[in-house]
């Protein structure tokens, strides 16, 4: 029998429901339970592939190519899982399906309604998910905040589910600090709103800028009618949250609610890795040169992959987000960098600055990592400045030497959603390359999200001049690297290795990059 834990956000958005759900999952996993996360999103997009990172943070890609939001990255990093498209249920997906059925005549003679048609669809979806995955716990994160129109039908479906299955409701909330006093009233109102929807939360978890005292806990217990109130104050890193919830006694509350036998947790490896991040003297600066630097969640997986790999090296890292347009004329924002990354990206804005940053890294032998667009621009920079070509990417306009071209299968693709080359592809890694050291001869599979590729007709010329192709997938260039004697450490991957980094299994690409950063000294 699967058990369901539903996490609902109240009062305001941005409290970290994803991190909370993932951390609850970790507390359970640490006791040997299997957990299956799932997220509901009320928006009418089918997936978030067409959303702007400025509005919605990064687009995360699952192994099967599904484009989802950054919470899925959090689940995978915390829980060490590789999820698939079934873990994401959006309003867009539901209504697409229901309208298809309506047109086929599946509801003939009936009006199609939120209750029961939409709510039944949701309940069946999660029950099937639980059954097929044979999970001990299904963790359901309801996107948005209690009181939104967008998620109200999901919440109603969860109320109905609680009449049929074992369901525990957790309300995440925020306690504003007014002249030193943490106020509970907004939370009380949100609990009442939930009650009005037929849901009594069993556990309240509070976010606040300082720890809550016994009075606040008691007040919430009494006025919100809940047994358990746990606190999630500001932590040094999000990876502390499972340990915090463990210390606060979350397991006991879950155990009692579902009448489970006692089970001890093993979070020692997790704690060891966290400890590795403390008490270091030295800090190295990694510059990420991109165009979404004002919304740092656009690079969430990249940031996390770096932080996770920093547990494997003896120094702390400081990530410096550098707006690409600012280095077009002047590279001084890069002068304190010990390593440079140009991440994935699209379109013209800032591109000359990115190319400048790559040239600066190459000429100064600063360790460089190019991801997707950052790899394509590494090829453009090399073709321009070493081979002397009039090089560009076809994505950016016309030139004599298009070293990056549209993938043939992308020609004629008009539809935007879900049509890039997405998800897992295997790389055949060339022996003797830096990349083959990184993957240690293991099968290298990484996730992708792109329309363009390296033009194979230029590979010969590039390799002659010291830009080595280190991996292919069926003729498509998957990775390049500098001849290290000439330019130091620099690698570029068409894939996004940041999407597969897990807290307990760092990405070997980022670990190697940071090791090179550690070895590099300014001339
Ligand atoms: N814009 C490039 C392409 O479509 C790179 C995409 C990316 O960096 N994710 O191929």
Overall description:
The protein is an alpha/beta fold. It has two domains: 3-273, Rossmann fold, CATH 3.40.50.300; 277-519, Class I glutamine amidotransferase (GATase) domain (Rossmann fold). 36% of the residues lie in helices and 24% in strands. It has a nine-stranded mixed beta sheet with strand order 13-12-14-15-23-22-21-18-19, sandwiched between helices. Strands 5-2-6-1-7-10-11 form a seven-stranded parallel beta sheet, with helices on both faces. The chain has a three-stranded mixed beta sheet with strand order 16-17-20, covered by helices on one side. Helix 1 (17-29) packs parallel to helix 3 and helix 1 crosses helix 9 (241-248). The longest helix is centred in the first third of the chain and has 20 residues, at 114-133. The chain is globular and about 70 Å long. The model has no long low-confidence stretch (mean pLDDT 94). It binds glutamine (GLN). Glutamine binds at residues 344-346, 372-373, 395, 449-452.
Essential attributes:
Rossmann fold, 523 residues, single chain, alpha/beta, 7-stranded parallel sheet, 18 helices
List the helices and strands and how they pair.
Blueprint (H helix, E strand, L loop, with lengths): L2 E7 L7 H13 L5 E7 L11 H4 L2 E3 L5 E3 H10 L8 E3 H14 L9 H20 L3 E6 L9 H13 L2 E8 L2 E2 L2 E2 L2 H12 L6 E6 L5 H11 L3 E6 L7 H8 L1 H9 L9 H8 L7 E8 L9 H10 L6 E8 L15 E4 L8 H13 L4 E4 L1 H13 L5 E3 L7 E6 L14 E9 L4 H6 L4 E7 L1 E3 L4 H6 L2 E7 L2 E7 L1 H4 L2 E4 L14 H12 L4
Parallel strand pairs: 1-6, 1-7, 2-5, 2-6, 7-10, 10-11, 12-13, 12-14, 14-15, 15-23, 16-17
Antiparallel strand pairs: 3-4, 8-9, 17-20, 18-19, 18-21, 21-22, 22-23
This protein binds glutamine (GLN).
The site of glutamine has 10 residues, from strand 19.
């Amino acid at each position: 029998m699967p058990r369901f834990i539903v996490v609902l956000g109240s009062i305001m958005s941005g409290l970290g429901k994803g991190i909370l759900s993932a951390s609850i999952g970790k507390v359970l996993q640490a006791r040997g339970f299997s957990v299956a996360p799932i997220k509901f999103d009320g928006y009418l997009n089918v997936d978030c592939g067409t959303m702007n990172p400025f509005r919605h943070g990064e687009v995360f890609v699952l192994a099967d190519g599904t484009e989802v939001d950054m919470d899925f990255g959090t689940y995978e990093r915390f829980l060490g899982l590789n999820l698939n498209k079934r873990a994401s249920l959006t309003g867009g997906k539901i209504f697409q399906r229901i309208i298809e059925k309506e047109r086929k005549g599946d509801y003939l003679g009936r009006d199609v309604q939120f209750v029961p048609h939409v709510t039944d669809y949701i309940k069946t979806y999660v029950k099937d998910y639980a059954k097929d995955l044979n999970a001990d716990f299904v963790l359901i994160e309801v996107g948005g905040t209690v009181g939104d129109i967008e998620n109200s039908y999901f919440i109603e479906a969860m109320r109905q589910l609680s009449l049929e299955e074992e369901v525990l409701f957790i309300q995440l909330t925020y306690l504003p600090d007014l002249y030193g006093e943490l106020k509970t009233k907004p939370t009380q109102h949100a609990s009442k709103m939930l009650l009005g929807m037929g849901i009594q939360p069993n556990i309240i978890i509070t976010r606040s800028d300082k720890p809550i005292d016994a009075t606040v806990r008691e007040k919430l217990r009494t006025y919100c009618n809940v047994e358990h109130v746990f606190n999630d104050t500001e932590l040094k890193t999000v990876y502390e949250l499972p340990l915090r919830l463990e210390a606060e006694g979350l397991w006991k509350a879950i155990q009692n609610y579902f009448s489970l036998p006692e089970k001890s947790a093993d979070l020692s490896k997790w704690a060891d890795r966290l400890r590795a991040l403390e008490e270091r003297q030295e800090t190295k600066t990694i510059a990420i040169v991109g165009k979404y630097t004002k919304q740092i969640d656009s690079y969430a997986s990249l940031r996390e992959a770096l932080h996770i790999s920093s547990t494997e090296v003896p120094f702390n890292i400081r990530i410096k987000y550098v707006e690409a347009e600012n280095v077009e004329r002047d590279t001084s924002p890069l002068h304190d960098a010990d390593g440079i990354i140009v991440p994935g990206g699209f379109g013209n804005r800032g591109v000359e600055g990115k190319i400048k940053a790559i040239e600066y890294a190459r000429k100064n032998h600063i360790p460089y990592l190019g991801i997707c667009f950052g790899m394509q621009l590494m090829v453009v920079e090399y073709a321009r400045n070493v081979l002397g070509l009039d090089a560009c990417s076809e994505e950016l306009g016309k030139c004599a030497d298009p070293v990056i071209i549209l993938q043939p299968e992308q020609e004629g693709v008009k539809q935007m959603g879900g049509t890039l080359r997405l998800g897992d592809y295997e790389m055949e890694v060339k022996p003797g390359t830096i990349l083959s050291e990184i993957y240690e001869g293991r099968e290298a599979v990484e996730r992708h999200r792109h329309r363009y590729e390296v033009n194979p007709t230029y590979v010969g010329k590039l390799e002659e001049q010291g830009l080595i192709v280190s991996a292919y997938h069926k003729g498509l260039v998957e990775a390049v690297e500098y001849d290290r004697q000439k330019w130091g450490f620099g690698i570029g991957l068409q894939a996004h290795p940041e999407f597969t980094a897990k807290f307990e299994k760092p990405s070997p690409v980022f670990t190697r990059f940071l090791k090179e950063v550690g070895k590099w000294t300014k001339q």
